[in-house]
C-alpha cells in the first residue's frame, strides 16, 4: 500500500495554494532550496514569502544538496518539517539533524545495487530514505527492481521520473511516491491539470 505522496519542485504561490486547497492533498510538498542549477530553485527571499502560509497539515520539505551551515542557518526558522539531503554522509546528516532539529529525508542516487545498500548507513539517523535517480534536477529513471530487497519496514520514498500513470503500479508497494517533472508543462512550469489528475488518482488508490 502506498504510504504517501510528495509533490516536489513547487516554486510559485498559485500552484502551492491550489495544492493546499485541493480536496485530496498530498502528504508532502518539496521546495528546491539551495540547488541553483534546478529550474525549480527558489531564491531565499521568495521562499520565505512562499512558505509563510497555513500548511493545512501538509508537510513542507526543504530540498538541499550538500548544504553548508550558512544556508542552514538562513532557513532554520522557516516553515519546514523535513530537510531532504543529497550528497550528505551519515556523520554530517547526524550533525544537521541534531543542530537544526528537523526530520531528515536522506536521498540516495541509484544506478546499481551498490548504491541501494548505502541506505544502511542512515537507518539510525534518517526518518525517511529516498531512492532517486542520478539525475538530480533532470527527471531521469532508474530500475526500481533494484529495490526489491529493501526491507518493508524501512520508511522509504521513491522518485526518478515517475509518471502519473505509473501510480497504480505502486498500489502494493510500501513507498511514499515523489513526483516533480511529470507534473510540468513543456516550459517546465507546474501544470494545475496534471496535479489535479495526480491527486484524484492517488485518492482512488
Molecular structure report:
There is one protein chain. The protein is of the alpha/beta class and 205 residues long. The chain has one domain (4-204): TIM Barrel (Alpha-Beta Barrel), CATH 3.20.20. Helix content is 25%, strand content 20%. It contains six helices and eight strands; from the N terminus they run βαβαβαβαβαβββα. It has helices at residues 13-20, 44-51, 69-75, 90-100, 113-116, 192-204; strands at 4-8, 28-32, 59-65, 82-86, 103-109, 128-132, 156-158, 175-179. It has an eight-stranded parallel β-barrel with strand order 1-2-3-4-5-6-7-8. The longest helix has 13 residues, at 192-204. The N and C termini lie close together (9 Å). The mean pLDDT is 94.
Secondary structure topology:
Elements: E1 4-8, H1 13-20, E2 28-32, H2 44-51, E3 59-65, H3 69-75, E4 82-86, H4 90-100, E5 103-109, H5 113-116, E6 128-132, E7 156-158, E8 175-179, H6 192-204
Parallel strand pairs: 1-2, 1-8, 2-3, 3-4, 4-5, 5-6, 6-7, 7-8
Query: Number of folding domains?
Result: 1
Structure classification = alpha/beta
Biggest sheet strand line-up: 1-2-3-4-5-6-7-8
The top-level CATH class is Alpha Beta
Share of residues in helices: 10-25%
Portion in beta strands: 15-25%
CATH fold-type name: TIM Barrel
CATH homolog superfamily? Aldolase class I
**Poorly predicted segments:** none
Largest sheet: 8 strands, parallel, barrel
Any descriptors?
alpha/beta, 6 helices, eight-stranded parallel beta barrel, TIM Barrel
Short overview:
The chain has 205 residues and is of the alpha/beta class. The chain has helices at 13-20, 44-51, 69-75, 90-100, 113-116, 192-204, and strands at 4-8, 28-32, 59-65, 82-86, 103-109, 128-132, 156-158, 175-179.
Amino acid at each position: 500500500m502506498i504510504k504517501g505522496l510528495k509533490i516536489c519542485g513547487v516554486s510559485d504561490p498559485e500552484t502551492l495554494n491550489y495544492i493546499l486547497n485541493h480536496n485530496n492533498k498530498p502528504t508532502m510538498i518539496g521546495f528546491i532550496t539551495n540547488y541553483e542549477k534546478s529550474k525549480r530553485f527558489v531564491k531565499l527571499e521568495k521562499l520565505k514569502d512562499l512558505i509563510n502560509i497555513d500548511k493545512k497539515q501538509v508537510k513542507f520539505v526543504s530540498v538541499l544538496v550538500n548544504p553548508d551551515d550558512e544556508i542552514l542557518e538562513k532557513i532554520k526558522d522557516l516553515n519546514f518539517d523535513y530537510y531532504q539531503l543529497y550528497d550528505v554522509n551519515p556523520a554530517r546528516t547526524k550533525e544537521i539533524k541534531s543542530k537544526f532539529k528537523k526530520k531528515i529525508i536522506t536521498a540516495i542516487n541509484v544506478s546499481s545495487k551498490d548504491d541501494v545498500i548505502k541506505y544502511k548507513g542512515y537507518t539510525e539517523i534518517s526518518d525517511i530514505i529516498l531512492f532517486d535517480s542520478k539525475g538530480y534536477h533532470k527527471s531521469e529513471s532508474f530500475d526500481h527492481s533494484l529495490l526489491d530487497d529493501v526491507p518493508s519496514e524501512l520508511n522509504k520514498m521513491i522518485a526518478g521520473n515517475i509518471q502519473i500513470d505509473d501510480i497504480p503500479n505502486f498500489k502494493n508497494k510500501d513507498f511514499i511516491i515523489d513526483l516533480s517533472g511529470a507534473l510540468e508543462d513543456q516550459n517546465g512550469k507546474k501544470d494545475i491539470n496534471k496535479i489535479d489528475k495526480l491527486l484524484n488518482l492517488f485518492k482512488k488508490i
